Amino acid sequence: MRNSRFRGIGIVLGVAIGTSVGVAVDQLAITLPLGIVLGLIVGSSIDKRRDR
């Protein structure tokens, strides 16, 4: 976990996307965790790509 910077960016992006979508659809409780999970997946996949 030495390149966790991208994971942090992914979490921030996921939270931002989840919050904006959640506010738009009035389903913040559902979209916020989804956004965090998506951000984690994107961040860790970028991490793996950078490790190669």
TrEMBL record:
Keywords: Membrane, Transmembrane, Transmembrane helix. Pfam families: Gly_zipper (PF26273). The chain crosses the membrane at residues 7-24, 30-46. Residues 3-48 form the Glycine zipper-like domain. This is Glycine zipper-like domain-containing protein. It comes from Halobacillus locisalis.
